[in-house]
Structures are given as structure tokens and as C-alpha cells.
Amino acid sequence: MYSKNLQIIMTLKTEPESFNVEDCRVNAEGENELLITFFKQKVWVNASQVKLCKTAGTAFCWKDSEENRYIELNHTCEVCPICLWWKCPHCGSCGCNKP
């Protein structure tokens, strides 16, 4: 489930900064936690509590493709904290609801 192109975006003071995700685990509540290095310390953060971004790659939305629309998913799209895949800006689909 871990993606090597996944980053966490956090705003420190006024400018957003990105941190590479180094690992992923599931906590006791069943939620994804992501490992980042933050000011030279390894920190686990809850994926649902931060903004996520994929920095490389593209794909097409599976749901829109079935309806003959081709919506490109890329670094500008939101990332789902559950499946760690892009959310389609048109229909909201991600890997969670893919059959």
C-alpha cells in the first residue's frame, strides 16, 4: 500500500513544505500512519490528519473511463488517506471504491 512518490504537505509559518513519506503502517484504530523525517527526527503521522500529495506519475480515473470520460489523475489531485491513491476531482472515486 505504501507509495514511494507520496509526500505530506504541512504549512510551517507561512510557506507549505513537503516531506517524503518513508514508510506506512496501520495503527490500532485501523488508520494509516506515515513515517516522515521532521527536523531530523522520525515521526509517525496519521494520514487522515495531513494533506497528501503524489509527486510523480499519472493515471486515469477508473470510474470515468468506464463512462468514456478520461479524467487524468496527477500531482494536482488530492490523495485518499485510506487507500493512498488519487481522488478523482470529477467524481470523487479513488482506490477505495474500485471494484
In one word, what is the shape?
globular
Question: Roughly how much helix do the residues carry, as a percent range?
Answer: under 10%
Biggest sheet features: 3 strands, antiparallel
Multimer state: single chain
Structural class designation: mainly beta
Mean pLDDT: 87
Helical segment tally? Answer: 1
The order of strands across the largest sheet is 2-1-6
Residues in β-strands, percent:
35-45%
Number of strands: 8
Distance between the termini: 17 Å
In N-to-C order, the SSE pattern is: EEEEEEEHE
Task: Give the radius of gyration.
Answer: 14 Å
Low-confidence stretches: none
Concise overview:
By secondary structure, this protein is mainly β. It contains 1 helix and 8 strands.
Per-chain topology:
Blueprint (H helix, E strand, L loop, with lengths): L5 E7 L2 E6 L2 E4 L5 E7 L2 E6 L4 E4 L4 E2 L1 H5 L5 E2 L26
Written account of the structure:
The mean pLDDT is 87. Strand 4 (32-38) and strand 5 (41-46) form a beta hairpin. This protein has one helix at 62-66; strands spanning 6-12, 15-20, 23-26, 32-38, 41-46, 51-54, 59-60, 72-73. The protein is globular and about 45 Å long. It is mainly β. The strands form three sheets. It has a three-stranded antiparallel beta sheet with strand order 2-1-6, with no helix packed on it. It has one helix and eight strands.
